[in-house]
Amino acid sequence: MKSSLNGQSRLLLAVNGLFVLAGALSGTFLNVYLWKTRQDFTMIGWFTFSQQLALGLAFYIAGKWVKERDKMIFLRLGIIISGLFYLLVLWAGPHTVDYIWPLGFLFGIGSGLFWLAFNVVFFEVTDVGNRDLFNGWIGILGSVIGILGPWTSGWVISVLKGDRGYRVIFTISLIVYGVGIVLSFFLKKRNRGGPYHWLEPLRQLRNGSPWRQAVPASAAHGLREGVFAFLINLLVFISTSAEWKVGQYSFVTSLVSLVSFWAAGKWFRIKYRHAGMLIGAVLIAVVIVPLLWKVNYFTLMLFGIGTSLFMPLYLLPIIASVFDLIGKSNDSVENRVELIVLRELSMMIGRLLGTLLFILVFAWAPRMTTVTWLMLGLGATPVLSWIAIRKLLKTAADTA
User: Fold this and answer.
1) Residue 332's closest CA among 209, 213, 223?
2) Is 203 contained in some domain?
3) Which end of the chain has fewer beta carbons closer than 10 Å to its terminal beta carbon, N or C?
4) pLDDT (tens digit, 9 = 90+) per residue, 127-140?
């Protein structure tokens, strides 16, 4: 087994980094941009819901073409559609809030196509021996981008004032997407797989399959991710009314995340997954508690730093364990696209349920205390992920 990254895996990391950079520059402030036009949590929630629904459907439907045809085409197509989304936002301007569902679907399709192709290629260029290392580097890259991207965007938006700053940042993201497309042509063309089995995700849920543990674990992970992905930066802006504060928040939390992911990538081993994931799941829930007393920049910063510090303990085991299942046998390797689709559909269900719960509960009790208690409840769902997947983690640890 390989214990280091080869040229293709490093190149894939670079393409991933550019895609994430474009999203960090503009995506960090996209919901803030919408909020400044219409201050409505429900509208932001439905925008997120439409993205998540389209992303999951794109995974399932495009799985056939990704498996049976050139994966690189769909990797590039995902980048192109994501760029088209920001082009339409530039065109629509403040009227973007009137097109929440179609724009959300477009953004979700672009993200779905990219991440489906990326995850398949990621599996093909790594193995059990270097998968934690690759994930650690993804975390490091994401942290570096999180340090520089949102801080730069926040500074530009604050200096240029009004919509002009947002238009500049959205334009820069279009350019970064273009560079990512060019770089992707240096990735080798991957071998095509056999026929795509539409019902394979359902067949994997039969009795005795380890996916009966991985699927609920992934769904529980999605419960938290779906809401926290759009809510945190928005709360920072609501608490401070300053885009540069959002950039500063991302700078600090990503700096902490850089160190924690570097340390996890260097020292975290398979034998630590069982205990490490539980510890991480509990601690990223505990750091939410200060927000129950008051939501301000200080308590949000405490939450952000704590989450960044402990997230690798939780995240690396659940990602690596699921991908290890895909490489468990020749049959699972052959059906890797369908299994990656299964993982994403599981997470989509969790994301949709979490977001829908947020929308409905907040509509029933539209108060900030509702938001914070929902954060605590959804923030504790990683413990459910550990409960669901603990036997797989234990088996892997014992084997290691």
Assistant:
1) 209
2) no
3) N
4) 766 777 787 788 78
